[in-house]
Amino acid sequence: MKVVENDKVISGMLGDELKRCQEMIAGLQRSLADLPKGILSERKKRYKEKVYSYYSLKYRDGQKVVNKHVPNNEALALSKKLDQRRKLEKEMSVYKKRINYLSRVLKAGKA
Amino acid sequence: MRRPISNKNMFPSEVMELLRSLHKVGFFEDSALIGSWVMPLYQDVFGIPYALRTLDIDFAVKFATSERGDKIDLENVITTLGYVPVVMLSGIRKFTQENFTVEFVVQRKGGRDDEAIGIRKWNIIAVPLPFVNILLDFTFIADFGDFQVKAPIPEAYFIQKMLIAHRRPGESKRHKDFEQCSVIAGNVDHVRLEKVLRSLKLSAKNKKAMRDSCKTIDFPPQLLGLL
User: Where are the alpha helices (DSSP H) in chain A?
Assistant: First the structure.
């Protein structure tokens, strides 16, 4: 880690990168707060030769598992939002890993 | 000024794909790639060596006052590539994918203190910063063959950094600015430098900032018209 220790520009860039990742986490958390959570499931029921679809959103609320009915006309929009949430959560985990790595590198550089 | 690029693999494939997509929708007609990602272009085209890069990819965008003209949903273009939009606490919208962050900057209007400016033409929210116009007014086109990227000429990048470095709140960013300036300083074209300088009307405060920057990197201030 001598490079980090000795080079002001490199250690500065790593510090800035850590800050950038922390800011991205804050932004991601903010974006996630506006999105619904849970799993959207579709149940199909046959009635008199016709197949009807019912959607429900299953999510955890503290200790409880909630099953909430979703009107058919809202299912597509909700599915897109849930998909967006998954992408943001994936990004969040990438940034968290990077923060852990950068913290270790910077700590080792100071030691 | 159009310059062919010899090292067509200078950027990671994700970045190449992003630049290609932006070129396709005409983004580089009035916008430019800026930040540390221009340095590989400088190495290839102008022989300016600099290896360090950050993971945020910045673009300078012209602020369009007119509502006329084609509108292009850049958010859609970028998210199609797998990036996800993230609204930062300041209100600006960035795009991220596997650690890469795409961000847009725009010329800050005099006297304004906005933290974010919406550019309707591109459906983006950009960060207003001073002296972005220098980067947009003096550009070259890096020709990758199947697509082109517009970027500021090194002399414009150099002057902009020399002006803003002392305003940087963070010491590390200031160090990085000066390091890039030092590298470019040894390779500046004096005719192009003069052209950029002639276009500027600098206040006494900005002239002082340039003088201080010259002192920091040991660059003769008279070459910037400063005595």
Answer: 2-6, 8-33, 72-110
Distance of residue A98 Cα from the nearest chain B Cα, in angstroms: 8
Q: Say what the pTM is.
A: 0.87
The pLDDT tens digits of the residues spanning B136-194 come to: 999 999 999 999 999 999 999 999 999 999 888 888 889 889 999 999 999 999 999 99
Cα distance between residue B159 and residue B166, in whole Å: 12
The domain in which residue A100 lies consists of: 2-110
Looking at CA atoms only, how far is residue A78 from chain B in angstroms?
Answer: 17
Task: Please state whether B12 falls in left (phi above 0), alpha (psi between -120 and 50) or beta.
Answer: beta
The residues near B115 (Cβ < 8 Å, ≥ 6 apart) are: B90, B91, B92, B127, B128
B96–A17 C-beta distance less than 8 A: no
* Number of domains chain A is built from: 1
Tokens of B131: 């002296």
Local structure of A86: helix, strand or coil: helix
